[in-house]
Amino acid sequence: MSSSALRRKAQADAILERAAFQLGDLLREACEELRPFPPFPNALFTNAIEVDLGPLATDPDLGCIVVAEDGELYELQMGIDHDAIELTGSWDPVTARKETLKKVELHPRDAVLYTYEALRLVTEHLLERDAEREAR
């Protein structure tokens, strides 16, 4: 590969990284403004907004990606806490519920897509909240 092609590729990578970083700053700022953060549907302990890219998602191994109130992107994992069941000796839907936010490390290309969509969704929530306040 020629040196000019490599230079262009390096410039493009740097632009993506910078865009992902700047979008992340905007997202964290918007999430701070949204507090209290909305609860995730059907979750008992998690406040987050799902970020679904639909057909634009490039990594089939990623599960449910959410933005949490700290403005970071996570994979939300829900399941049963078998240790809690064993510890308590009974199955209680609340104590047996396991909700975990796992920080995701995304390629800058994917980070731009997910972060922009998260910012769009948080902005929608902010606008809805403001509209409700004005209607009162």
Structural class: alpha+beta
pLDDT below 50 for ≥5 consecutive residues: which ranges? none
Provide the gyration radius in Å: 19 Å
Which band does the percent of strand residues land in? 15-25%
Which bin fits the share of residues in helices? 40-55%
Main sheet makeup: 4 strands, antiparallel
Number of helices: 4
Strand order of the largest sheet: 1-2-3-4
Overall mean pLDDT: 89
Provide structural commentary.
- By secondary structure, the chain is of the alpha+beta class.
- It is built from four helices and four strands; from the N terminus they run αβββααβα.
- A hairpin with a 4-residue loop joins strand 2 (64-68) and strand 3.
- It has a four-stranded antiparallel sheet with strand order 1-2-3-4.
- 52% of the residues lie in helices and 17% in strands.
Structure keywords:
136 residues; alpha+beta; four-stranded antiparallel beta sheet
Topology (elements, then pairings):
Blueprint: H1 3-34, E1 48-50, E2 64-68, E3 73-80, H2 82-88, H3 93-96, E4 97-103, H4 108-135
Helix pairs in contact: 1-4
What's the short story on this structure?
The protein is an alpha+beta fold and 136 residues long.
